[in-house]
């Protein structure tokens, strides 16, 4: 075959394949996206695509793990701090916003999984583990008197991350520096909107 007739483009690595797949999963949906769609979006053949990954399920696993790994790193960093639980909780919220801003498409996909595949079930299991970490931190903050004790800790954890996760609906890099948005979310979560 002549070089001019070859379909694949050089230079695509696994990260490029993953990024293309995540964009398609987020716009078309995981079920509606085929490996052919991913290959076509990159201008490569399906056989070239399979050189990088074993299939669509692997792409989904890699994508949600990219989001979850960042969130777990944020949790671990906040938990390592030697400060009051309320300070660590606020730092976790701030760090989570930064992860979301940095890995927006991956977190967006993570928040859309429903448990329909083994990869999705694995992602949901890891999300529940993260929920437990945040709930435990809320309980510690309540015990220290830094957070209202009349609110169920699990509910508070879900509401805090609901605020963080809502950013997938409106955040874009041109809407402000991630650090500024992270500070705003953390401040509002802990101080509210009321003028004091």
UniProtKB/TrEMBL annotation:
PROSITE patterns: HTH_TETR_2. Residues 34-53 bind DNA. Residues 11-71 form the HTH tetR-type domain. Keywords: DNA-binding, Transcription, Transcription regulation. SUPFAM superfamilies: Homeodomain-like (SSF46689), Tetracyclin repressor-like, C-terminal domain (SSF48498). InterPro entries: Homeodomain-like_sf, HTH-type_TetR-like_transc_reg, HTH_TetR, KstR2_TetR_C, Tet_transcr_reg_TetR-rel_C_sf. Gene3D superfamilies: Homeodomain-like (1.10.10.60), Tetracycline Repressor, domain 2 (1.10.357.10). This is TetR/AcrR family transcriptional regulator.
């Amino acid at each position: 075959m002549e070089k001019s007739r070859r379909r694949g483009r050089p230079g695509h690595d696994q990260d490029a394949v993953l990024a293309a797949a995540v964009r398609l999963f987020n716009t078309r949906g995981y079920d509606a996206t085929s490996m052919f769609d991913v290959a076509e979006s990159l201008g490569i053949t399906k056989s070239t695509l399979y050189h990088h990954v074993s299939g669509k399920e692997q792409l989904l696993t890699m994508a949600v793990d990219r989001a979850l790994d960042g969130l777990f790193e944020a949790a671990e960093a906040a938990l390592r701090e030697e400060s009051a639980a309320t300070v660590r909780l606020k730092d976790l919220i701030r760090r989570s916003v930064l992860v979301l801003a940095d890995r927006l498409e991956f977190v967006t996909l993570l928040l859309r999984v429903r448990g329909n595949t083994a990869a999705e079930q694995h992602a949901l299991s890891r999300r529940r583990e993260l929920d437990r970490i945040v709930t435990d931190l809320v309980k510690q903050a309540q015990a220290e008197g830094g957070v209202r004790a009349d609110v169920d800790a699990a509910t508070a954890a879900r509401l805090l991350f609901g605020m963080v996760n809502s950013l997938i609906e409106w955040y874009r890099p041109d809407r402000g520096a991630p650090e500024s948005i992270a500070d705003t979310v953390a401040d509002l979560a802990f101080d509210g909107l009321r003028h004091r």
